[in-house]
Amino acid sequence: MVKIAIIGVTGYAGSELARILYGHPEAQIVAVTSRQAAGKRLPEVLPYLWPIDVPVTQGVEVSVDVAFSALPSGASAEALAPLAKAGVRCVDIAADFRLKDVAEYEATYKTKHPAPELVPQAVYGLTELHREALKKTKIVANPGCYPAGALLALAPAVKSGLVRDSVIMDSKSGISGAGRGGLATSIQDHYCEADENLVPYGLSGHVHLAEISQELGLLRGGQRPRATFVPHRIPMVRGIISTCYADLADASLTTEKVREAYCEFYKGEPFVRVTPDAPSAKQTAGTNFCLVYPVVDSRAGRLIVVSAIDNLGKGAAGQAVQNMNVMFGFPEEMGLRAIAIYP
Amino acid sequence: MVKIAIIGVTGYAGSELARILYGHPEAQIVAVTSRQAAGKRLPEVLPYLWPIDVPVTQGVEVSVDVAFSALPSGASAEALAPLAKAGVRCVDIAADFRLKDVAEYEATYKTKHPAPELVPQAVYGLTELHREALKKTKIVANPGCYPAGALLALAPAVKSGLVRDSVIMDSKSGISGAGRGGLATSIQDHYCEADENLVPYGLSGHVHLAEISQELGLLRGGQRPRATFVPHRIPMVRGIISTCYADLADASLTTEKVREAYCEFYKGEPFVRVTPDAPSAKQTAGTNFCLVYPVVDSRAGRLIVVSAIDNLGKGAAGQAVQNMNVMFGFPEEMGLRAIAIYP
Amino acid sequence: MVKIAIIGVTGYAGSELARILYGHPEAQIVAVTSRQAAGKRLPEVLPYLWPIDVPVTQGVEVSVDVAFSALPSGASAEALAPLAKAGVRCVDIAADFRLKDVAEYEATYKTKHPAPELVPQAVYGLTELHREALKKTKIVANPGCYPAGALLALAPAVKSGLVRDSVIMDSKSGISGAGRGGLATSIQDHYCEADENLVPYGLSGHVHLAEISQELGLLRGGQRPRATFVPHRIPMVRGIISTCYADLADASLTTEKVREAYCEFYKGEPFVRVTPDAPSAKQTAGTNFCLVYPVVDSRAGRLIVVSAIDNLGKGAAGQAVQNMNVMFGFPEEMGLRAIAIYP
Amino acid sequence: MVKIAIIGVTGYAGSELARILYGHPEAQIVAVTSRQAAGKRLPEVLPYLWPIDVPVTQGVEVSVDVAFSALPSGASAEALAPLAKAGVRCVDIAADFRLKDVAEYEATYKTKHPAPELVPQAVYGLTELHREALKKTKIVANPGCYPAGALLALAPAVKSGLVRDSVIMDSKSGISGAGRGGLATSIQDHYCEADENLVPYGLSGHVHLAEISQELGLLRGGQRPRATFVPHRIPMVRGIISTCYADLADASLTTEKVREAYCEFYKGEPFVRVTPDAPSAKQTAGTNFCLVYPVVDSRAGRLIVVSAIDNLGKGAAGQAVQNMNVMFGFPEEMGLRAIAIYP
Predict the structure, then answer these.
(1) Residue of chain D whose Cα is closest to the Cα of C176
(2) What are the chain D neighbours of B12 within 8 Å (beta carbons)?
(3) Helix (H) / strand (E) containing B275
(4) How confident is the model at residue C186 (pLDDT cuts 50, 70, 90)?
(5) Has residue D139 got a pLDDT over 80?
(6) Which chains touch A (3 or more CB pairs under 8 A)?
(7) Same domain, D13 and D96
(8) B107 and B170: one domain?
(9) Nearest residue on chain A to D234, alpha-carbon basis
(10) D131: in domain
């Protein structure tokens, strides 16, 4: 059994980790931390987790094999650094180890990096793109929720040169992507503000664009594309649909040809599925799946790719457990076989 | 034109007042106040109110004919007291003038009443029960949202002695009933906590029971009934359905007889309608209507009455404007003729 | 491995069965039926079930150990009768075997019973009330979704005589309780009609009252109570909250005493939990749990009990799998350990 | 008073027309039609419209000044043609008179046009683009809901040549855009399928692209752009957000310059507002407003424009009443001054 710490358990990614790991046959949750809830038992804070009756502590006070951090960016690397240096495997669900260029991190997140010396050994944890490196690393930089969906939508096309250097990603996310906040939360997350509403945001630049550009650049031999990314808040709890647009490199490409390339790219992947029809968000609720659907708009000479994920699954906690499985040599699907909760 | 102040404009009742009064032909909004937003223009705080481009101030700094207060209880009477003493007509949407017994108020709301000397002249503002007194008063105690719906459901039966002294009110409210909060809000109002959820609360006693008991007692010649009231939070923005249960005084009473009594009681009322079928919350959205549906459960010897209101309409701002119309001798429907937004 | 047929797989109870059984270590889904979808593969009809790639057939054409039927009432007994007679264990999620009195069934459901000769051997499948009989039966009458929640709320109080003979059950259900319908569905289930709405119904009598009365009667030595039951449609997909009211037999009973009785009654039950605070619907989403919260309203001399279930879990498919586990001697929690999907 | 017929009153556009026209001081609803509901009174079919107690008829059986048709495409022109020929002013909310090229109409809607001879005199009813022609026409082709929002987002940029010939429109619509259906409705509109879901559709071509292309072409001197349009179903009742992308003609253009052009283009328009921040869908609920927000993504050399409308307001019934006001010489805002229902 792998002994596990969840740092920042009361947020939505942290509590989803607890939910998933409770059903993982090789996982044993031995420590959960929260600054606000330290001193209580976990079910006193989150009653629906009553089967996981462990104490909430300020920090990780027992010996663990792997630590997941779901703290805010900045705080996360600070909490993980001593553990990483003590040999504990670390999965950072925050953004702190995603950008290879520390200066870009600091400009993007407007904070000083608390552990820049650890950045080089971290691996970007989109398993489908970096599986071999993940097997060997001690520090995983779990992808952002938007990048997970957008990169899996575009990776095959970009890698194979099916599209030009200009991409647009129009993403729509459920409200849980904004996080839980503490005892009080932002007015924009108030039920009455978010319900029956739809809010575009980040129009002057969203932090996730940096890691998307980095990874798309790597797929193109280092050259970053001309990328536009616009996220939208949708009145649902979970799910991200990313609708991606790119001009075709060759206007004669057909949907069939593109689908073949996508199926080839994702052959054998347990969690990515090229779907026969446009996927919907609900088809991924509670799962670690990413559904991808490419289609050619031949009139306009464009490729459109839709991807669907659960932002707390493949976009956060599910992806994190998949990475743990890779690191520890477990079958990749272990603990992650759930089918979507539908309806 | 009546010159109007809205005290506490940024909450949901306050902004609904602004919306309704903007369409009222005899109303002119000349002052809106908010502690947090003072110094800005109203549309800077609430962009959808851009047609009402007035400055937000700390207090009421201009001469007005009527002041509506949508402040929290306690703060409301404090803000209204000097205006009332200066002869301004006041409509208090908070609870401060609802209970005739100041000691009961202080025990219920766990606060000292800031202006007990004004309580005797205040009239409980459920127009259908106190119309004549409202015509003459300077201080209206607008009913609570739950009491508005529950009292209109039960008043005919209680007044006419159709039921015994024991009543149960099971109420279901949209989340806007919890208020907007300030810049930060309670975690229970977070979209992800309230959506796809249903939460009973107040099981050890809800403050609204006091005014319900007071008013039902008045209808029964002063004797308060044995009343149980349980509210529930429902994942919708607006609307309250109250399902009320009481044992029939005479087990041979039929639905037809009870309906007759209800129709008679509400004859000529512009905003209460005895419906032919069970009403739904959406049928009242954005309106000042109360839909009432009584039915006899003859097997169990019980009367069941369902009422539907918009908690921000008949349960708050709409009722307040109706009371203003009564006070100023305007037709009661003025500015309140809107049909439900449906769907 | 137990070989399983799901009859009527495309409805919400049927597809939830498929989802749960896919994760059950002793279950093998070998047949799924649907009149409309016969001839297709299951994922062609319900794409999110792509990991369960079995053919949909008209009837059960292979040998099975247990058949679950999620057909409408009437059709269900007709489909199960030949299987039951051939020795297949049957779990009927429809209403056909719930009422021990065939005449009452026919009056309630306004249809002739297709297999009255099987009724005597069927056992009402609320495991907590009939576990021993369920171990020996071949036909399980899975409870209705409302009765499951209401009975678990009231059973301890009724059985122990804590309350008088009069009970009121005010239940609130997510829309999935209305079923999926076929290719077309009822206008009241249209998103735009159900969303931001709340609809009381069944005010002149709901079919589920019959089985509630039967079971409460059994708990009281055969004497049926004076019961009123009013269901409400709530704008959420899953979940039922039942708020139950009954006059205390002894007005001096305290919440503590009642809680003790409830904890004793449910001691050792894996799926019923007496909660320290009022439960909410979301705490049961995707699970087989029933959360029960009794509280005394001492002013009114009444007991209030709230229960929460997932109508597709403990209210349908989860309960059905629990019953299968009992019938086959598996640990009762097998395949049913999931914690709530939250948020 | 203008005497009005609403043809197809029971759909969402038809009933929204009734709601708006009830509050219009110069309008008198004298006929409402519905094939399914003929013979009943309007409130028997749609109870929330009880203040509009008129009979529902099969056809328009009384003399009217203007007829609005909210029938499906094809049926609409058939119903309007005899009225138009008799001199009645007609506003077609269906698609039948939008496309100037009848062959394109027939290819797009896969139906024969029932009254091609009337097409030349019809005017495309996006008031902001065709106001002068609308003043003189007898037949208004009210725009589709998606085109209304997308065209108002792009018109200033396309007309002024700020962008190149390639545009992408990623639109997100509430479910009411799919229509109400009759007594039964499509499974995809079932609450449990649409809620907590997000569904891209029309990926192989949506009928609304034809009228968007026609109108954008007119703005560019006849040359149609290379346009891609992808609609998405969002779990909310009302509202469309269109996020539009186009490469800048001149990469040095700033947000300020573009905003100036937009403000100039819409100067004096009562229903279009260039907003200081990104608009949200809820800010338009129940109104006839279109909120437009252009912003330059200078890194990518692109213009992004977001527009927000209520699909039943500016996207259907509100726009139709605005056109009626233009046709009859009423002030354009008459009956349309409502501020958004918020929250």
Answers:
(1) D192
(2) 343
(3) none
(4) confident
(5) yes
(6) B, C, D
(7) yes
(8) no
(9) A234
(10) no
- Which residues are within 8 A (CB) of A310 and not within 5 positions of it... i.e. 6 or more apart? A238, A239, A240, A281, A284, A285, A286, A287, A288, A289, A318
pLDDT digits (tens, 9 = 90+) for D8-52: 999 999 999 999 999 999 999 999 999 999 999 999 999 999 999
Q: Is the CB of B300 less than 8 angstroms away from the CB of C228? A: yes
- Å between D247 CA and nearest CA of chain A: 10
pLDDT of residue A181: 81
Residues on chain C touching A276 (C-beta within 8 angstroms)? 47
Residue A158 and residue A75 share a domain:
no
Tell me: cis bond preceding A114? Omega within 30 of 0 counts: no
Residue D91 φ/ψ, nearest 5 degrees: -120, 115
Distance CA A44, CA A41 (A): 5
Q: Which chains touch C (3 or more CB pairs under 8 A)?
A: A, B, D
Using a CB–CB cut-off of 8 Å, the residues of D that contact C are 12, 175-176, 180-187, 189-196, 235-237
Q: Which chain A residues have any C-beta within 8 angstroms of a chain C C-beta?
A: 12, 15, 19, 22-23, 46-52, 176, 180, 195-196, 237-238, 273, 275-277, 279, 282-286, 337-343
Tokens of D296: 């330059």
Choose from A164, A165, A167, A168 for mutation: most chain D CBs within 10 A. Answer: A168
Q: How many helices (H) and strands (E) does chain D have?
A: 10, 15
pLDDT digits (tens, 9 = 90+) for D181-240: 865 668 999 999 999 999 999 999 999 999 999 999 999 999 999 999 999 999 999 999
Does C207 lie in the same domain as C100?
Answer: no
Chain B residues lying within 8 Å of A181, measured CB to CB: 184, 187, 190
Dist. CA A68–CA D340, nearest whole Å: 44
Q: Do B237 and A195 count as a contact with CB atoms less than 8 A apart? A: yes
D173 falls within a domain: yes
Facing residue for B185 by CB, picked from A12, A185, A195: A185
Closest residue in B to A235 (Cα–Cα): B191
**Given B199, B230, B302, which is nearest C280 (Cβ)?**
B199
Distances (CA, A) of C220 to C132, C143, C159, D321: 19, 19, 6, 64
Whether the per-residue pLDDT at B185 is higher than 90: the answer is no
Same domain as A168, residue A108: no
Query: pLDDT tens-digit profile of B100-150?
Result: 999 999 999 999 999 999 999 999 999 999 999 999 999 999 999 999 999
Determine whether the interchain pair A236/D235 forms a contact, defined as Cβ–Cβ distance below 8 Å.
Answer: yes
Write down which chains contact chain D via at least 3 CB pairs under 8 A: A, B, C
A145 is catalytic: yes
Nearest-CA neighbor of A23 among A51, A44, A42?
A51
What interhelical angle do B208-219 and B145-159 show, nearest 10? 20
Cα–Cα distance measured from residue C229 to residue C212, given in angstroms and rounded to the nearest whole number: 9
Chain B, nearest residue to D291 by Cα? B48
In this prediction, residue D110 carries a pLDDT of 96
Q: Which domain holds residue C303?
A: 146-310
Judge contact between C17 and C3, C-beta under 8 A. no
Q: In this predicted structure, what is the pLDDT of residue B274?
A: 98
* Active-site amino acid positions of B: 145
User: A180 and B190 in contact by Cβ < 8 A?
Assistant: yes
- CA–CA dist B226, D283 (Å, integer): 44
Q: Which residues of C touch B166 (CB under 8 A)?
A: 300
Residues A110 and A234 in one domain: no
Read off the CATH number of the domain in which D89 is found. 3.40.50.720
